[in-house]
Design goal:
With about 375 residues, this protein is an alpha+beta fold. It is about 15% helix and about 20% strand. It contains 5 helices and 11 strands; from the N terminus they run E-E-E-E-E-E-E-E-H-H-H-E-H-E-H-E.
Length: about 375
């Protein structure tokens, strides 16, 4: 449907018409029309409206009807009257070419239902994919089966659908693999992860890839906190520089050992008792001072007796005496975990128990200092 105004313009003032009288006589006249707005003249410009309606029957037949009417007189007469154009018309169109619907259906026809229309489908009777122009692609490598030399294995078009060779089976084709005979990773272009320092830990996991280390320290060497050349794992004194023959601990000075042995010889107990004599306190205080001077020192306190009395009695008595010394040192501020107290009774004599002098030497306290 449609409609709208129109404008008519008189291009020529010639007119030709025929008059047939009652007797059938025909007369043809050619006149020149007078143009203008005056009486007995024709307007050169005339306007009006028109309307159009039609219907298309499935792109095969189209019927239309149109109507036009001028809205102003095109002629001024000497007598009253209206001279306006009015036109009724109609058309019938029959399409001789295929209809649009038929064309669309033909363009969309997909015989195998694979989503690729037959006009573009190289295999219209077999279901395929758009990537292969409608042909089947069993392995999904975008190479149609009818061109694929390896239709059951995904490959590449360059090799007609066959996979690129990969001798080391690392998932990287030999063409791109810089180490085609050794399995590797994509990060290293098909080569194994390197181990620069040859410590058995690959560089990706090695926190010290240029220095040989251990798994425990993620590829780094064991630390040597005190810098004595003995790593902390083997160093019994990791915070104090020492000697290899002393397991990383420093040698104890001879003067200190002399003071310790002197203190041990000065400690006495009441007879058959673990009560420390007052005269021994000076020696024990000296021992506490030595222990405070180096907080890494540890002390083994050993109690010994002569063979007088039963073995059981001597064992218990020597243990109680060693424990009494430990208790004294703890009260002087020495951490108990730095001290051990053991009683050995008469098991380790250092002199002859058959003499009073020998038995006196065997009744003793021994201090063993260590780190």
């Amino acid at each position: 449907m449609g409609g709208g105004p129109y404008i008519a313009l008189q291009l020529t003032d010639k007119a030709a018409y025929e008059i047939i009288n009652a007797s059938g006589e025909r007369n043809i006249f050619t006149d020149k029309l007078a143009s203008g707005d005056a009486v007995n003249k024709y307007d050169k410009l005339n306007w009006g409206i028109n309307a159009l309606a039609g219907f298309d029957f499935n792109d095969r037949l189209m019927l239309t009807a149109n109507y036009s009417r001028s809205m102003s007189d095109f002629y001024t007469a000497q007598y009253p009257g209206s001279f306006r154009h009015e036109l009724w018309g109609g058309t019938a169109v029959i399409w001789l070419t295929p209809s649009k619907t038929a064309k669309i259906k033909a363009d969309q026809k997909d015989s195998d239902g694979d989503g690729v229309p037959d006009k573009l489908d190289k295999c219209p009777a077999e279901m395929g994919t758009a990537a292969t122009s409608g042909c089947p692609d069993t392995d999904g490598d975008s190479v149609p089966d009818n061109e694929d030399k390896c239709p059951g294995i995904a490959g590449i078009s360059k090799l007609l659908g066959c996979p690129a060779p990969d001798k080391d089976n690392d998932g990287i084709s030999d063409e791109a693999d810089k180490c085609p005979d050794v399995a590797g990773t994509a990060k290293y272009n098909g080569c194994p992860v390197p181990d620069t320092d040859a410590d058995g830990i690959n560089d990706d996991s090695d926190n010290c890839p240029a220095i040989a280390g251990t798994v425990k320290y993620n590829g780094c060497p064991a630390p040597d906190t005190d810098g004595d050349g003995i790593d902390d794992d083997a160093d019994k004194c990791p915070l104090k520089a020492g000697a290899k023959e002393n397991n990383g601990c420093p040698h104890i000075a001879k003067d200190m050992l002399d003071d310790i042995n002197k203190a041990a010889r000065s400690i006495l107990f009441d007879v058959n008792s673990d009560n420390i004599k007052l005269t021994s306190f000076t020696a024990l205080d000296k021992m506490a001072e030595i222990m405070r001077s180096d907080t890494e020192l540890k002390l083994d306190i050993e109690g010994h007796t002569d063979n007088t009395g039963s073995i059981r009695h001597n064992q218990v008595l020597s243990g109680r005496r060693a424990l009494a010394i430990k208790t004294y040192l703890v009260k002087k501020g020495i951490a108990p975990e730095r001290l051990t107290a053991s009683g050995f009774g008469s098991e380790h004599p250092i002199a002859d128990n058959n003499t009073e002098e020998g038995r006196s030497k065997n009744r003793r306290v021994a201090f063993k200092i260590k780190y």
